[in-house]
Request: fold
Amino acid sequence: MNKWDFYTSNEIKPEGWLKRQLTIQAEGLSGNLHKIWPDVRDSAWIGGDREGWERVPYWLDGFIPLAYLLEREDMIADAKKYIDAIVDAQEEDGWICPCPKEKRARYDTWALQLICKTLKVYYDCSGDERIPEVIYRALKNYYELLKSGEIRLTKWAKYRWFETFVSLNFLYEKYNEEWMKDFARLLKEQGFDYGSAAEKWKKPRHLWRFKTHAVNITMMLKSEAVSHDLLGDEYTDEAERLREILDRYNGTAFEGFTGDEVLSGIDPTRGTECCAVVEQMYSYEELFAHTGDNKWAERLEVIGFNALPATVSEDMWTHQYVQQVNQIACRKTMIMAPWSTNGPYANTFGLQPNFGCCTANFNQGWPKLALSAFMHKGDAVINAVMLPSVLQDKNFTIRLETDYPFNNKAHYYIDSEKDFNFKIRIPSFAEKLTVNGKSADTEDLEFAIAKGSTEIEVDFETTPYLKKRPNDLFALQMGSLLFAVPVAYKKEMREYTRMGVERKYPYCDWQFTPETPWNYGFSSDSFEVCRHSPGDIPFSQNNPPVTIKAEMRQIDWGLKFPYGSVARKTPKSSLPITDKREIELCPYGCAKLRMTEMPVLHK
Reply:
């Protein structure tokens, strides 16, 4: 396998718009969740009486790299307090989860898989030499319990068995012990085989099942990549085969899948869970690292630059549980509607608009994307995703100045004390590529960097185009960015306390009601691109960093019966009811209310 290794948060530092985005996150919910949310503040993981399962590990999985990327000493200290409490509570036999011995057989060990993965993240960031032994003892105990039959993989652990390999691979590289291979085989034998469920994905059943759960499925995409080496299996790119089925029957314009919470078919008004977004990103990060296949890095861009910013508020104090591609309002709906299994507040913005998993888990999205900018293998380095950042290796420094994906210019400043090979991944959609002002092929760029100082300027063009979607609808895309008609809205704030959880500004609940028209169709395939510099809020609806002007006309679209805040799946009529007007579309991730998939009008 053509495996790339990730750099750590001590070696990569964000700059430009990326640093601003991470700073917003640190000053928002991610950086303050342990102060305000009982399930993290008072968790059983640190000796409290609240949730002692997935929420603290989920939160730490993003909070830790965020703290180290931004070099926030206060956050680093808070992370250490949590890690110290978890390490100190590890039992003599290695068991690490907050569960008494007599209840282990009924404890869903998904949390054990997750905390070991999170501990590895902490080790990568901190270098804390206690951590490898802590993970070793926890996984050795897990193996012995599974091997003896005292426990089995059930529920979430059965459907997320492959997540264990993130920490198990780390242990094997460090200790190379035979039991680890047997453990790998045991996990696969007791884990669920998603290939056996693919037929179930072709028609939405709207019944809650582990095998059709969108978050499980987005996690699953990396399963073969992370497990096949330790299992001794040949890599077959099973992820691509399964992704094609998922996309054909449940795909979205931003190249994710509908899932509210289970797979929900082809409909731009269905929801996609926030957890599914960040887990699909993480799967693509791991897939690219393990395979070196550019398609995964390019797909990572599309998800990360569109679906991730779309599902969180601009100040990152609140998030949605599910986002819609065509989202004309974010309001309470009738019970369970129009979702498969979610509640009526699922697409509103809040602290916990449905289940609290996303409250904790959305934190990993931006930090792990930042850590995917550069990777290394032997004496080679690759810029996998063009993100403004600085890579400080022990032998060289690479500073990348860019506003990508909002424009297509990248300037690399390299200072090196040794020779090394440097590769830049160029997206497949790049046109008229130039390097230092000279025309180049639109393939990956490779450079033999010599000792001293080197500058590389990369520039290319992207062309807006209408991407065909099901049901005779189209979406406007340019490069990795999807564009949508932004809908202005009125915000309604709701503060309250329920079940001991307080919602108050800025982490209160918000509902959005549209104030401008949304019922449009495209009247032309001619577009005008307008580029600006990213502002203090990179994904701002009122100040977007790039827009596209398009000729559009209103149509009789209509609402999905019997809801007052959900557009029909397809318009009632595609006959224009107004004259042409110029509409300025903004990046999908900027628009909290938006129309994205629309018809092309021929009259």
Q: What stands out?
A: The longest helix spans residues 131-148. The CA atoms of residues 42 and 48 lie 5 Å apart. The first strand starts at residue 5 and ends at 6.
